[in-house]
Structures are given as C-alpha cells and as structure tokens.
Amino acid sequence: MLSTGALRAHLLAARLAGPVATPREKSLRSYRLFAARDPRILLGLDPEWRWGPGDLLGLMADRCGVSADPGYTSGADVIDPERTLTALDAFAGRLAGAARRRLPVLFGTGHPHRLLGFYAALADALSAAGCTVLTPAQGHSVDITTRFGLRTYNLDYVQGVALVREPGARPAGSGTGAHTHSPLPVRAVLDAAAEAGGPLPELVVGDHGWVCGAGQLGFEAIGLADTDDPALFVGEAEGRVSVVVPLDDAVRSDYYRPLTRYVLNRACLSQ
C-alpha cells in the first residue's frame, strides 16, 4: 500500500507536482487564448461565465497552486502536491462509486504516449468490478484541425482506452496513438454509441477534449490536467466537470504507476 506521504514524495521527485516542466510563459499564453475563446484551448467547453486572463490566473492559483502574481511571467510553473493529493482522493471516490453501481464507463486520452498505462489499469480494474468499459466507434474517422491543417484520424481502443491514430500509422490495437486536444473524438464516440442504441457512459475518464467535450454534453467527467489546460478547471468551477487532478501530464509514463496504485487502493479496487 502506497502511503500519502510516499506519494507526495514521488510527486515532487518525478516533477508531477512542485516545480513542473510546463513553462510559466506557456501557461499564461493559454490563459490569454482561453479568455479570447480560442477553440484550441477551450477543448470543447463553452464557458458560461466571462473569464479574463486575471480571472483564470486566480482560478489556477486556487485549483493548482500556481503563483497568483501576474508579474511572475517566466520560469517553471508550480503545482501544489497537496492539491494533487486531494483531487486524487476525489477522483478515486468517483471510480469507487462507478464500481459500486457497476456503471458503464468510457476512457479516452489525448496523451497516449504518457497516460495510456494509467487509464488502462483503471479500465481493467473497473471491468473486473463489473462495469462495462465502452468501446464504440472503433475505426471511425475523425477530421481534426491541427497546426498543420485538417487531418483525418481513426478512433482506436487499446486496453479499453480510446485514442486517435493517423491512418496506417500502426495496426489497430497496438502501440500508441496521436496527441490531441480536440473534443471531436469524444463527440464521435458518443454519437456512435447513441446511434447504435447501446449504453451511454455514466462516467467519462480522461484528459483534454475527452473530459471537456463530454462534460459540455452533460456527461459526468473526471480527468487530469496541467497548468496550461485551464479549460478543465473552468469546467470544474462551472459544474460541468466533476473532478480535475492537477499534475504534469507529460512526464515519463512509468512515473504515473504509483498514482495508479494509490487511486486503486483509495477506490478499493484491485489491479
């Protein structure tokens, strides 16, 4: 069993929290773009409230622990490990509730190279607990606007976790997929599930557009977010995202394994 103290030490040592690799300049730029309602940063969320850059900085200071000083404009950003631990407990609580009620659950990630293993272990545990881990729209195509223009991706599932791949990148079911912030994949998945008449998820677990896109459509959603992803925290503040765990979402994939053990233990789920 991993203690809270041991996990706190790991968060700091792995730079999942404390001073993180996300530059302050990148975070502040994201807040400015979100305030301007840039869809690349909204991640599928349509904010109900007016959020200026100063409002977002205040929110992120409260939810993540970043510096609230607008004069601090360069250097490493900071995540308070205590906020990460508190959010992980709430995250585990939502998983425990899903397991207890045997809810249908959808997992999806825009960070497959980093977070696939984390989500896959949770999906496996929930499946073992009697939940249906949904995999609709396998192989469907999604057109996503990127900085290189409009590109077509295919939806795939690896160990119960949805992701997107470039066509022909790798055989379905192997390797990892493409990095994306887009909400279009989760919209395609939810549309396909509804059209098929199958179960819809009662909990969506993931990051980026998977969480914001699902939350905007009224599905309960929980996930992970870095200091440059204000949309998830705005969604939480406005009541469309249930839990957001602040942490660096782009460290080595094996650094998330202690978080997996901690969450499964807190949720009373076996791995």
Task: List the quaternary state of the chains.
Answer: single chain
Q: Looking at the structure, what is the overall shape?
A: globular
CA-atom Rg in angstroms: 17 Å
Number of strands: 9
Averaged pLDDT: 95
Please outline the major beta sheet.
Answer: 7 strands, mixed
Q: How many helix segments? A: 10
Low-confidence stretches: none
Walkthrough of the structure:
The model has no long low-confidence stretch (mean pLDDT 95). The protein has 10 helices and 9 strands. 43% of the residues lie in helices and 18% in strands. The two termini are 12 Å apart. The chain has a 7-stranded mixed sheet. A two-stranded antiparallel ribbon has the order 1-2. The chain has one domain (4-266). This is Phosphatase. InterPro entries: Phosphatase_SCO2771. Pfam families: Phosphatase.
Offer a concise description of the structure.
It comes from Streptomyces alfalfae. With 271 residues, this protein is an alpha/beta fold.
Please name the defining characteristics of this protein:
globular; Phosphatase_SCO2771; 18% strand; seven-stranded mixed sheet; Phosphatase; two-stranded antiparallel ribbon; single chain; alpha/beta; 271 residues; 10 helices
Describe how the helices and strands are arranged.
Layout: H1 4-13, E1 18-23, H2 24-35, H3 39-42, H4 53-63, E2 76-79, H5 81-101, E3 105-108, H6 112-128, E4 141-146, E5 149-158, E6 161-165, H7 184-196, E7 203-207, H8 208-216, E8 221-225, H9 230-238, E9 243-246, H10 257-266
Parallel strand pairs: 3-6, 3-7, 7-8, 8-9
Antiparallel strand pairs: 1-2, 4-5, 5-6
Pfam families: Phosphatase
Protein name: Phosphatase
InterPro entries: Phosphatase_SCO2771
